[in-house]
Amino acid sequence: MKTLVLVSCFALALLLAGPGFSHQAVQQSKGFSIPLIDLSEERQRQVIVDREPGQYLGHPTTVLLEDKKTIIAVYPKGHGRGAIIMKRSTDGGLTWSNRLPTPKSWETSLETPTIHRVIDRRGKKRLIVFSGLYPIRMAFSEDDGQSWSELKPIGDFGGIVAMGSVERLKNGDYVALFHDDGRYFRKDGKNSKFMTLYQTISKDGGMTWGEPQELFKSDQIHLCEPGVIRSPNGKQLAMLLRENRRVRNSFVMFSNDEAKTWSQPVELPASLTGDRHTGKYSKDGRLFISFRDMAPETPTKGDWVAWVGRYEDIAKQREGQYRVRLMDNHKNKSGWEADCAYPGVEILPDGSFVTTTYGHWIPNEAPYIVSIRLKLKELDDKARTAKP
Predict the structure, then answer these.
(1) Cβ neighbours of residue 57 under 8 Å, at least 6 residues apart?
(2) What is the architecture of the domain spanning 28-383?
(3) pTM recorded for the entire structure
(4) Predicted confidence band at 293 (pLDDT cuts at 50, 70, 90)?
């Protein structure tokens, strides 16, 4: 087992990920001191994307098309498992269409769908939608979501929340990341005490995917739901990770060689601790990262929150600038498994962030999908008077 030495993230990025993890690694604080802004009562920001009385609607992901105003959202009719629903906004998330027609096989989805834009080396644009568990299946569209193929397996492997993150590499390949606990990676798999991170590479613009590569495996920390952010200079990838045993904060791994190798995981501050990190850069170079708050010591446990800071804060494991409570979730708030916030994050030409997710927004009612619009300047003004 390798002992983790906390030098700099750039030195760590030279290490290969191994199967073990040392509990002797320096641990981060369970609390944080940066200001907390609360937008949960600002209902003018909230747009209902979809709601159906008595029906669980959850786990959306979104994609912004090149016109910078069309957003497509996909989400399951159920808790992960359930028919994939698709909606479209043509005005940057202010209004949403009715539920759109989808292929018959989309009704058979077993887990959280994810949607991504991919472009092959010849410039051909496609949208792809993944559906997880065994086997991971994919559908594609070559007309910006007007028509879709059926879901078909991408290989003899499966996984959980596939593919939560898809990133274009400098050579034109794509890397897609997911995780598994032994149950779904192969047919007839069994649950194990280990959680394993995987990546798979596409060399043809997302149409076919290679055999997955194991990145990190541990029974001491369960790292999952990877969310990848590229550094401002384009030279480094940072993979933000949920810690599913709830014994440590969230973690980050780095790659300096376009996902060929990844560093050993480094624990993040509590300010970035949560589930299903999704982020985009603002025009001034700051990051807005949305996630479910699972910090050990936080006044917004289990809520939909966001973190604002710079990439260097992640690289150097700093707390960042401030946190934002986006909406108040009313299910299992203090429990191990709060139920909200698998978010999509998009940024519009005017600097507005449009972030979309699900949650139990009304006590004792089924969860539904909401989109929120905000600008960092608005948050900066509020942060000046916000309490730590």
Answers:
(1) 50, 51, 75, 76, 77, 85, 358, 366, 367, 368, 369
(2) 6 Propeller (2.120)
(3) 0.93
(4) very high
